[in-house]
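Lecture notes, structural biology module. Today: joint structure prediction for complexes of three components.
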Amino acid sequence: MDEGFIPYQQSLEDEEQSIKSTQSVIEQAIAWFRAHSMFVLAYGTGCGAIEMPPTFTSRYDIERLGVVGVATPRQADILIVSGYCSPKTLKRVIRSYEQMSEPKYIIGLGSCTINGGMYWDSYNTIKKLDDFLPVDMYVNGCMPRPEALIEGFVKLQEKIRANSSEAGYIQYRTRYAHYRANQERLFGTQVQPRYEENFAGMNL
Amino acid sequence: MFHFEATLLAHLFFGLSLLVILPLLRRRDLVLHLLLLLSLGILFYASSLATLFIGWEMMGWSSYFILASSARVATLQRYILFNLGGAFALLGAIALLYGFMGSLEYRDIDASLLPPWAMNAIALLLFVAVFVKSGIIGLHDWVVDSYSEATPLFSAILSAILSKAGIYLFIVMFMVLLKEGATEPLLFEIMAWLGVITSIVATFKAISQDEMRRLLAYSSIAQIGYIITILALMQGFALEAALYHTLIHTLIKLLLFMNIASIIAITQKERFSELGGMIYHAPVLFLLLVIGIIALAGMPLLGGFNSKFLIYTALLEEKRALLLGAVMFSSASAFLYCYKLVYGIYLGQRPQEASLHVSPKSYYLPQLLSAALLVLLALLPSLPVGYLSVIGVELGFAPLDDSNLFILQSAFGSFHGGALMGAFGVAFVALLGLLQLAHSKAKKVKDPLDISYCGEVPRSETNLHFGYGMGYELHRISFIAPLLRHHSRVLWDRLSLIASDFSALLSSLYSLSAQHVTLLALLLFTLLLLGGQ
Amino acid sequence: MLLLDLLLMLLIAYGFGFLYYGLYRNLSARVHGRFGPSLAQSFSDSIKLFVKEESTTFGWMFYLGPVIMASGAVLNVLFIPFLNQGESLQGLSSYGNLIVVLYLMVLGPLGNALGVGSSGNPFGVMGVTRGLTRLLALELPFYLAAIGVMIDAGSADFGIIMQAQSTQSNMFAHPLLFAAAFISFLGFMGKSPFDVVGAPQEVYSGPATEFSGKFLALLMSQSAMFSFAKLLLMVNLFWGGADHLGELVAKTFVLFVAATFIGSVYARFSTVQSVEFLIRIPTLLGIVGLALL
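The predicted structure, tokenised, for the full assembly:
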């Protein structure tokens, strides 16, 4: 295989093509609809919140991609955690994520969600969001501009269309013990209700 | 001459309800209830004004005694005072009629002989009697208090049956006996507007109530308001609409009050603020109440729409656009209290876990019967038309067309009850199937507190049921807020103050010292002497 | 034959409902100086919601709420004739009339309100309360206008109402009534300034707060059909109905665009403001219009 940036990009796209071909037509259609209609719960945890309004309004107009903001987690597909999280905020973020319907995805906006960013040695913000919730897409930067966020959405669209079994929500279900342990370590006794116990069963 | 088929009313509204309720009564009350039944019989099968008046009076005091077992003294006094006032007005009207006719028999009454002033005076007096019994706004305080303080079962009787006595009196007097009389048309005009204003004000008052039975009492007043309005048109189709609405209202109020009686029996609570979330404890009662409120709101698919339709078309036929607008406004506002009723009791969160009792099984029977009839009437809206038309035909009006029981005919169009029900049923089943087959799987939350609440986890002590306060914002709307104040209560309180002052003055005459009495007697004597000259 | 006709009506309402909804998002985006999503975006949204893996429910009443709401919308479409002549696309209109339709329009929302209430979410009930409070003032001008139209035509039957307008449409014959009904109609469409019911920042989407997945999908689909039914109602009452499908599309489109443009530039009224506005201006217009009848 050739070396260099463009062949590298090409190899990634080929990989996606091969994943797609394993899906049936209906699965592909479902994935297409999911990728082209993204309801976003924009959780303004930190300063990243300031970058989201321009993304949604006239100048950047992310509605072109089918991205719409919604108010409640029940309706949302994508949770944007925009920046640092204090434990107090994180509790609400976790609760909101758990109330979303599957399939659901998380975009971590800004460096703080990756490694704490400039809050690395803060006494009350978490460093790594992925310890507590499965992040599907990071958009790094401090702060990332709307263009970067749009790029993140486009990448996430590709990921959704690939319909991989490594999607965050599947991870969260299968490796819940891991996430729960981290959450309990952080919150101590004041933890949220357990996610597994949220539903009585698959019925009316 | 007088083959009075209006007595059919008795079978129609009252016999049905009483038969349903009587088996439920405790033995102790039974005698009084039988007395009440007897008084209704006398009232409805009377052939002279004297008998009518006796029935009217008996109805008043027999229900007073029943009420006495549970109501406060102030309520009882209010009840008896208002009803006595109405009865005196009725007596005055009868006396005037007797003065001109020389007889109290129905068949001897010929209203065309009455001079206009006498006819108008009689009409006014009768209006007072009718309005007091129907609780026209300003005269409604006793209705609300007695409905909410009676035993739950007796509230049902009061609302379903006794509230119709005023309507009966109006029909008998104005549409039968005094039909030929030269009553000033303006009086009926005023009555029509009084009826509709009553229904609007009572609707808003109902929305702002916290007690279940007070809400329903105001709702009864509002519904009777429509009937008064429509009767004031003095037309055949209006009479049929009014009778139809009376029938529907009887069924609905029986259903709703019995439902609330069951809820009171289960929870021992009377207020929306103390109830909530009963749907999964009593699903059957919930469904019955839903049938009741959908009918009360006058939605198609249940019987309530039929009578609303007849009322609207009757008003349209008379080209009373503004009156109809007001009636429809009141009817649309009623959705709010209908929803408050079902939300406050059955929906939302349970406020706290309190012990629940079991509702007596016998309470279900009248509810089921009423609900079944409401559904049947929705399917076959013309079913009672033939029966109702008998009265109109006897009074010389053209009957409604009921050749097809599925279709309710009126001058302004018709509708097919079966088609409505069928289309809704098919659509409902198809959409339910679609939802069941959808790729998405429904998951039921385990904890009812797992609601999306801005990321918070509400605790059981968090008050999530504050929706019972709906209607509070009506106080902030400048057009509606003045209607919600207690004008009439203030008015009557003032009147009672004046009356008690006056009687205190009178009684002070009896407690004077001997000198003062002598002085007064001398004064009186002198005055008499002077007057004699 | 009738069955085919009914299915065709539903299909038209569904298709045009979503088309207009997409158009609405596009047009308001243009007003904002954006490009907006594709025309089929709302349709994609509803399909996506139908194929979400899971939907949260709170019990059987919650499950049935959207079904009742959607059945109400279907009934509305079926009981309003699409055309003012001929046999086709008349639906079940001969079995009902204007009064039936006016009440059917409220049946669905009330059924859904039961579902909303059973979720136990206070925000949902706040939305419902706002909606019902606004409704009492919203319906008044529309009722007044409808009463005028019915008295003018001498019937509540849609066919006769449309026939009565063959020489002059009600919009020109009774401009005041039309103005009253149009302002109400803006509210019925849920457009600004009367969109306080589902205000996301205040009541967390209001009635729709707890609906997810297929329930939301059903609600979106019925809302598209319902909007088309409301457009139809206005066209039939005030613009004399339509002779053929092309005219119907043209007329509903014009009405829809007018509503969209007005909705895009007005700020939201609070509940109290909208009730007071609706009782003041359009109701007064309606009363004067009735007096001039």
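Point to remember: The longest helix of chain B spans residues 236-267.
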